[in-house]
Design goal:
The protein is an alpha/beta fold and about 180 residues long. It has a single domain, classed as Pyruvate-ferredoxin Oxidoreductase, domain 3 (3-Layer(aba) Sandwich), CATH 3.40.920. It is built from six helices and six strands, in the order βαβββαββαααα. α2 links the parallel β4 and β5. α1 crosses α5, α3 crosses α6 and α4 packs across α6. The radius of gyration is 15 Å and the shape is globular.
């Protein structure tokens, strides 16, 4: 079975970082993965997204007309990618930066105040890890060993951020239980 994801936001929100971590979690879980980043030359503040495909069988590096889950870290991302969510798919929305607006009745919405939750942790840049925790909870419940390994690999040059991001991941993971 192939699972498809889009993570989208503005440059500086860690969209590509969290997409890379998600792709690595899948690889550590023995899945075949494609990772397609998309960003403009302006980077910080400009539109950024990435598409991740994961499968038990080999796959081509493909872009999809529709995906299982979209993570929208801001209003622009919500507006742009709501139409790409498959019927019965899910959109995770940062309600700190996007209006709570259910424009479709054939998908599941998870509105979470990611930015506010990250601020409670003392680092606004962990909002992306909170989103990944939510995504993890509603998909495959990745093994914590693989989550930690992926963070350690991707953030190896920023060791001080590894534990903070893993803590944020669990805030997101537990956010679903609390609702």
């Amino acid at each position: 079975m192939i699972r498809n994801f889009i993570i989208s936001g503005s440059g500086g929100q860690g969209v590509l970082s969290i997409g890379t971590i998600l792709a690595n979690i899948f690889m550590l879980s023995d899945k075949f993965v494609s990772f397609i980043p998309c960003y403009g030359a302006e980077m910080r503040g400009g539109a950024v997204n990435c598409e991740i495909n994961a499968s038990d069988e080999e796959l081509l590096c493909i872009q999809n007309k529709e995906v299982d889950i979209v993570v929208a870290l801001n209003q622009t991302s919500f507006d742009k990618f709501i139409s790409k969510v498959k019927k019965n798919g899910t959109i995770i929305v940062n309600s700190s930066l996007a209006k709570i607006n259910k424009t479709r009745d054939d998908i599941k919405y998870i509105f979470a105040p990611l930015t506010q939750e990250a601020l409670k942790l003392g680092n606004i840049k962990t909002a992306n890890s909170i989103a990944l925790g939510i995504l993890s909870k509603i998909t495959d419940n990745f093994s914590i060993e693989n989550v930690k390994k992926a963070y350690e690999k991707i953030l190896k040059d920023k060791k001080d951020l590894i534990q903070k991001n893993i803590e944020a991941y669990f805030v997101g993971y537990n956010y679903i239980q609390e609702r």
